[in-house]
Write a structure and sequence with these properties.
The chain is an alpha/beta fold and about 350 residues long. The protein folds into 2 domains: about 140 residues, NAD(P)-binding Rossmann-like Domain (Rossmann fold, 3-Layer(aba) Sandwich); about 160 residues, 2-Layer Sandwich (Dihydrodipicolinate Reductase, domain 2). The strands form 2 sheets. It has a 9-stranded mixed beta sheet with strand order 13-12-11-10-6-9-8-7-14. Strands 2-1-3-4-5 form a 5-stranded parallel beta sheet, with helices on both faces. Helix 5 links the parallel strand 4 and strand 5. Helix 4 packs parallel to helix 5, helix 5 packs antiparallel against helix 9 and helix 7 crosses helix 9. The longest helix is centred in the last third of the chain and has 20 residues.
């Protein structure tokens, strides 16, 4: 079977993990890479052996006729790039944050659905090996009925006036930062592990005055099952880990039968109720890429869907729920109240 043809737009810091995934996947052939910064595009193209295009995106798409467009660019570009692909019947993976706001995300989703073109959001953390293994154990019944989940985010990269400038400088100017850029990963991952979210309560704050948006916060989740969740995050402190960005923090999943704990080395520890804690060994994935190879795992999942129609995670339609929960988190913090997700007006830009 011939490889699916992939074109990519974006050569910023994070795009390296996308390009590494495409290079490693046997069912994909990255046939073009474009970026408005010619020097960045050239460097990334040379690094991964991808043909570079100096053309406008539309011209590139018409010239190479890919099966899939991978959008690895900031939100302000998403609507135009997604539209260009959909108009040509080209499937899309679009990085998060997905569009400028929830209303724009909904518009892109509806455009793709009308055209019958697959549109997937590149929400990768749920594809980390540790969360896939945790989900397998949950589904196998090892934890029993779930009581709660907690994640303590501590990547340690947000202190001082130069915070983020060497890697992703646009972080400094985002008016909404911690939740929209980072905690959204755990909104999605909590839903993957625990089921649907009913309500949230949040307190968000800015600690580093060098950035525009919030960089610390506490979010309490109430799940439909009755279980609860806690996201306790700040980007200034770090945690015990050789590489604090490998897992970005530590997690606990509690059930009737015991507690599953994730540490900063991506090890999982199982403590049965009233028993001793022992390491649960599994394949933790590669150490030299983001989140144990989460990007490649997502990309492979999308390729399988395009080939055989298998069920798709993080379709744009499914992802809208994450954005509704995100909007509820901001509303809760802004208004100082608990917000039930389905009572929040979600069709206005946020």
């Amino acid at each position: 079977m011939s490889a699916l043809r992939v074109a990519a737009v974006g050569a910023g810091y994070f795009s390296q993990f996308h390009h590494l995934g495409w290079r490693n996947l046997p069912g994909a052939d990255c046939v073009a890479l474009a970026d408005r910064d010619a020097a960045k595009a050239q460097a990334m193209a040379q690094r991964f052996g991808v043909p570079r295009s100096d053309d406008r995106l539309e011209t590139m798409l018409d010239a190479v006729r890919p099966d899939l467009l991978d959008i690895i660019t900031p939100p302000a570009t998403h609507r135009g790039f997604v539209a260009a692909a959909i108009e040509r019947g080209i499937a899309v993976i679009c990085q998060k944050p997905f569009g400028e706001n929830t209303a724009e995300a909904l518009a892109m989703t509806e455009q793709a659905e009308r055209a019958g073109v697959p549109l997937v959001v590149h929400e990768n953390v749920r594809w980390s090996p540790w969360y896939r293994e945790a989900k397998r154990l949950i589904d196998n019944g090892q934890l029993g009925a779930l009581h709660g989940v907690a994640f303590r985010l501590r990547p340690g990269d947000g202190q001082g006036p130069r915070a983020y400038l060497d890697r992703q400088p646009y972080f400094q100017g985002m008016p909404r930062f911690l939740v929209r850029e980072t905690a959204i990963h755990w909104i999605d991952s909590f839903r993957f592990l625990m089921g649907e979210v009913h309500a949230v309560s949040a307190r968000l704050r800015r600690v580093n005055p060098a950035i525009a948006g919030e960089d610390a916060g506490i979010i309490v989740f109430e799940f439909d099952s009755g279980a609860t969740g806690l996201f306790d995050g700040n980007r200034l402190n770090d945690h015990v880990a050789t590489n604090p960005r490998r897992t970005m923090g530590e997690a606990w999943i509690e059930g009737a039968h015991g507690v599953l704990r994730l540490d900063g080395e991506a090890r999982l520890w199982w403590k049965p109720h009233q028993g001793a804690e022992t390491e649960h060994r599994y394949d933790r994935g590669a150490e030299d890429t983001f989140a144990g190879g989460a990007c490649q795992a997502l990309q492979g999942h999308v390729l399988r869907h395009l080939r055989d129609g298998s069920a798709l995670e993080n379709s744009a339609r499914a992802y809208l729920r994450n954005l509704h929960i995100q909007d509820a988190v901001y509303a809760s913090s802004d208004e100082g109240r608990r917000v039930i997700i389905d009572t929040l007006r979600t069709n206005a830009p946020r």
